[in-house]
Amino acid sequence: MEQQIQIGWQGRFYEDFEVGDKIAHALGRTISQTDNSWFTQLTQNTNPIHFDHHYAKQTEFQKAIVNSAFTIALVTGQSVSDISQNVMANLGWDEVRLPHPVFEGDTIYSYTEILSKRESAKRNNVGIIEVKTTGYNQDGQIVIHFKRTMMIYKKGYAPNIMKPLIDQVISQDGK
């Protein structure tokens, strides 16, 4: 009996989203001093509150705070496997709010709520969804929330990532 290859999770397609759904993202991430310093330097952010601990001790926070661009990048990234794995294009981020600072050593988790969905007026292979993603720390404090609008492929239209290649590899492996 020949075994079937089971393809792993490939993300949601436009048809899979329902307005009102709330999707908790599986992975949290603890932010290190190195994460914060490297991201800050990579993006040429010169504010010393992100990398100079002596300076940061003199602020009301008493310690370095995480670069907010890192926070939005991390929380967006946490949502990809559930929300935008099959995105054709991001159309925008709106209403970005940072109600509580993120500190080195914090662990960030997130979830996304589906706000709206509609057919694309110009493309029959995608639909448009709007979501609100919320990030929170290990103490349950909301540290970021934002809206994001995306064009998501419909089933049968996304580029095929794995199937042709896996069949080829398996056929070679059995020889």
TrEMBL record:
CDD domains: FkbR2. Residues 19-126 form the MaoC-like domain. Pfam families: MaoC_dehydratas (PF01575). It comes from the Bacteria. SUPFAM superfamilies: Thioesterase/thiol ester dehydrase-isomerase. InterPro entries: HotDog_dom_sf (IPR029069), MaoC-like_dom (IPR002539), MCH/BMMD (IPR052342). This is Acyl dehydratase.
